[in-house]
Amino acid sequence: MDIWHVRGGRKLKGACRVQGSKNASLPILAAMAVSPLRAELSNVPRLRDVDAALRILRHLGCRTEQEGDRVYIDSAGMTRGDIPHELMEEMRSSVIFMGALLARCGEARMSLPGGCRLGKRPIDLHLAALRQLGAEIREEEGEIVCRGGKLRGTRIELPFPSVGATENVMLAACAAEGETELCGAAREPEITALQQLLCAMGARIRGAGSGRIVIGGMVPRPALCARIPFDRIAASTLACAAAATGGSIELLDVDAQQFSTVLYFLNRAGCDIITQNSRVCLSAPPRLCGVGDLRTAPFPGFPTDAQPVLMAALLRSRGRTRITETIFENRFRQAPELRRLGADVRVSGRTAEIRGVERLQGAALTAGDLRGGAAMILGGLAAEGETLIRDEGHVLRGYEALDERLRALGADIQTEICNEEKSDGDDKSDAPAGEQAQ
Ligand code: EPU
Hints:
By secondary structure, the protein is an alpha/beta fold. The chain is 29% helix and 26% strand. It is built from 14 helices and 24 strands. It has helices spanning 22-31, 48-60, 85-88, 97-105, 124-132, 163-173, 189-200, 232-244, 260-268, 307-313, 334-339, 370-382, 395-398, 402-408, and strands spanning 2-7, 13-17, 38-42, 63-67, 70-74, 82-83, 107-111, 136-140, 143-147, 155-157, 180-183, 203-206, 212-218, 223-227, 248-252, 272-276, 279-283, 292-295, 320-324, 344-348, 351-355, 364-367, 386-391, 412-417. The strands form six sheets. The protein has a four-stranded mixed sheet. Strands 2-15-17-16 form a four-stranded mixed sheet, with helices on one face. Strands 4-5-3-14 form a four-stranded mixed sheet, with helices on one face. Helix 1 runs parallel beside helix 2 and helix 6 (163-173) runs parallel beside helix 7. Uridine-diphosphate-2(N-acetylglucosaminyl) butyric acid binds next to helix 1, helix 5, helix 6 and helix 12.
C-alpha cells in the first residue's frame, strides 16, 4: 500500500525532464526475447511494470542487469517458452510476450492476462491475428497454448487498431516466412518505437505510424544499444498538473506532436502553450475554462490514458466539459473519488460531465487504477488542505518518481510506502482469468 499525502493550493512552476515511456518499454523488453541478443537500453523508467517484464525475461532464461536508467539484457541463453501465472497476472501487457515467444521458440504457454479494472480487456484480436500467421492456439482452463510450427506471412486486417495486438503481430511476424501485411494497425508512437527497435535487431519492417505495417522477416543481429523515448502520458500528466494549479511548466526533451491533442485541449481551456524544438512551455490562468465536448480515440485522437488527468485539471474550471470515453468501458473510476473533493462530475455510461466549481477541499481518496490515481493526485494539488490517497501500488506501476518531480515544481507531496506488496495494477484481473477469456 502506498499513501500519497498532498497539500494543495500551490502553483506548480519550473522546468522538468519527462521519464522514459512505460508503454514503449514493455513491448521493447518483450522484443528482447525474439532473437539471441545482447542489448543495452537507456532511459528505461524505474517502474513496477518494467520490473515485472524483467522478471519474465529472467524466468525465460535471459540475463538482465539494471543500473540507473540503463538495462542490460543478454537473451542468448533463453531456455523456455512458458510464463507462469504469477508473472502473467502482474500486468496485462505480459501478453505481448506471446508474439515474441512464438517467434523465438515456435511455441508459447501462458495463462490468460485476464480482464481488468478498466472493464473487459479480451485478447481475441491478438489470438485471431496470430492464428492467421499460422499459430495453432488452444485455450485450456485459463491457459493459452500456442504452437507456431512454421509461421507464414499473410495479410491481416485488424477490425480495431489494438495497440497490443499490433505489437504481438509485429513480434511474431519477424520469424514468419514471407511478408506480413498488417492493415488497420495501431498508429501510436509506441508502435513506431517498437519498429525502430526491431529494425535495429535486424528486422525488415516499415509503415509504423500509418495504419499499414509490412513485416518482411528478420536477419538477427547480435547486439544493439537503444534509447527509450519520452513518455507522452507522463508529459500530459505534468502539463495537466501545472494547469490544475494555475501554474507554469517547461517540459524538456519531449516531442509535442506525440501529445498534441492534450496540448490542444489545454490551450482551449485557456493555457498559453509554446512549443520549441524539444521543449513545451505551458502557462495556465488561475482558473481554466471548460472545453466543451471531448472524445477519447486511438492515436492520433485524444489518448484514453490522459483522460483522467485532464478531467482532474478541469475540476475548478469555469464552464462545462463533456468527456466521452470510447476505448475502455470503465475508465471513469476516478470520478466518484474526485467528487469527495467537492468536484461536480457526473457519469452516465460512457460520458462524464464536469461542471467546474470554484473551490475543492482535500479529502481521503482511494486509487483504483494507474491513471485514475494520478488524477486524484492532481485533484489534491488543486484542492485546499490535505488530500490523502491510498493506493495499492497503481501509480508507481507507471510513474517514475512522480512525487519528486512534483516537489521539484513546488508541490507539497509526500509518499509513504507502507510495504512492498506485489504489484496489483489496473491491468490485473479482478476475476479468475478464465472468466475473461473471449
Ligand atoms: N481489445 C479487444 N480485443 C483485443 C484487444 C483489445 O476487444 O484483443 C479492446 C480492449 O478491450 C480495449 C481496446 O480494445 O477496450 C483498446 O485496447 P488495446 O489493445 O489498444 O490496448 P492495450 O494494448 O491493452 C495499450 C496501453 C494502455 C492504453 C491502450 C490504449 C500498454 C502496455 N498499454 O493497452 O495503457 O490505454 O493501449 O491506448 O501499452 C496505461 O498506460 O495506463 C494503459 C492502460
